[in-house]
């Protein structure tokens, strides 16, 4: 049976991306992105909820994210959800959910075109997003 693990978010970066390299030399960039949801309570009070996502990009996409993204910049991120687990220094089991990005479109600044994906396909314009 087929399965699907796909996540799409549009939000703003909470900090500048951090790029590092694996022992084999592959670049990996991590950053956090926030999305907001606004709703109205039955009493008429407006509430805003913010959800934070950790994003991991590899290789060429990692280099592009490190070069073109910065704190506060809006971006569209598409990828798969991955859960990492480890044991903390205190012996407690810890976990973290993260998005392993396979596409990032840089939004929020006029005149900046999205970068093409690896393989030569052109990126989507914001008005072409599937939602």
Walk me through the topology.
Elements: E1 7-13, E2 18-21, E3 27-40, E4 46-58, H1 59-68, E5 74-87, E6 93-106
Parallel strand pairs: 4-6
Antiparallel strand pairs: 1-3, 1-5, 2-3, 3-4, 5-6
List keywords for this structure.
single chain; 131 residues; mainly beta; OB fold (Dihydrolipoamide Acetyltransferase, E2P); 1 helix; 6 strands
Please summarize what this structure is.
The chain is mainly β and about 130 residues long. The chain is built from 1 helix and 6 strands; from the N terminus they run E-E-E-E-H-E-E. The protein is globular.
Structure write-up:
It is built from one helix and six strands. The longest helix is centred in the middle third of the chain and has 10 residues. About 9% of the residues have low confidence. A five-stranded mixed barrel has the order 1-3-4-6-5. The protein is 8% helix and 50% strand. The chain has one domain: Nucleic acid-binding proteins (OB fold (Dihydrolipoamide Acetyltransferase, E2P)). It is mainly beta.
